[in-house]
Amino acid sequence: MGTLIDVLAPLLLIAAAAAYGRRVRTLAERRRPVGVWRQISFGAGILVLIVSDVPPLSGVAEEIVVAHMVQHLLIGDLAGLLVALGLTGPILQPLLARRPFAWLRVLGHPLVALPIWALNLYLWHLSALYQGVLDSAVLHLAQHGCFFAFGLAMWLPLVGPLPKPAWFGDGAKLLYIVVVRFGEAVLANVLIWSGSVLYPDYAPGEAEWDISPLADQGAAGNVMMIWTGLVTLGLFTWLFFRAANRSAEKQELIELAEAHGFELDPARAARAVASGQGERLRERILGHSP
Fold first, then answer.
1. Chain centroid offset of residue 127 CA
2. Which of 61, 71, 159, 212 is most exposed by smallest CB count within 10 Å?
3. What is the spatial distance between Cα 138 and Cα 185, in angstroms, rounded to a whole number?
């Protein structure tokens, strides 16, 4: 059952990494280099996906629910985040320029990314689908592909390069994080507190690991709860420091503009900082002749 996943999935990921590497080299030749940290992040995301889908984790994940949950969190949350951090507008430009893929731009909108992520999360945890992957390699590959794709979509409004609505500032991002983590916490609590076994097909593996079905199911829910708490804390900390840094950068630009006789609307400075164009605006101010 695992043969297709063990062979096909890593090959697809290696092909994606190769395409990313070619684009990075092309941009470097055009003097539009991609940051080393972004390349490392993308590579780490691909590595997490490969490790998650090959033995030993892939084998244990077919036997007990808690290991399957760890696998899904690595694929959907961690790998999705790392790959999103590795992407830039110039990297995606050739893909988005193709008409069949132009619609991918909408994934930067939180009101698109959030609902499809939540729907995907809950659908795949329905008993029929969650257990169906034990008997179907194709379904298992589809499940992991969906967890990664929609997990990546969930992260794009927060850290990705796709266009975002003007209203999606730090306050809206904070609410977005709360809603995402609440969605995971609800599912985790269902697994923890359910008085019935939701995934009985794991019974043979649970017997081999000497763990009861309810204990295995509860452990999976607890893993999700712990992960959700850690990610939420990390994201809140990131938002706090980013807001503080942006505020300081905005004030520096305003003061620099005043010192050089450059007329700068504070709202314009805020937009430049929020879009990552603060340095470009700084160069324009310094090159201004009163």
1. 25
2. 212
3. 29
Residue entry with tokens 């990921």: 13
Q: Of 121, 131, 122, which Cα lies nearest the Cα of 206? A: 131
Amino acid (1-letter code) at residue 166: A
For every residue of 183-202, DSSP letters joined together read HHHHHHHHHHH-SS-S-GGG
pLDDT the model gives residue 122: 96
Q: Collapsing DSSP states into helix, strand and coil, what is residue 205? A: helix
Residue 2 has pLDDT above 50, yes or no: no
pTM of the model: 0.86
First-residue to last-residue Cα distance in the chain: 71
- Mean pLDDT value of segment 2-18: 76
Contact 13, 50 (CB under 8 A): yes
143 neighbors 133 (Cβ within 8 angstroms)? yes
Taking a C-beta distance cutoff of 8 angstroms, is the pair 224, 188 a contact?
yes
- For the chain, what are the domain ranges? 3-248
Reading the block at residue 12, the tokens are: 């697809």
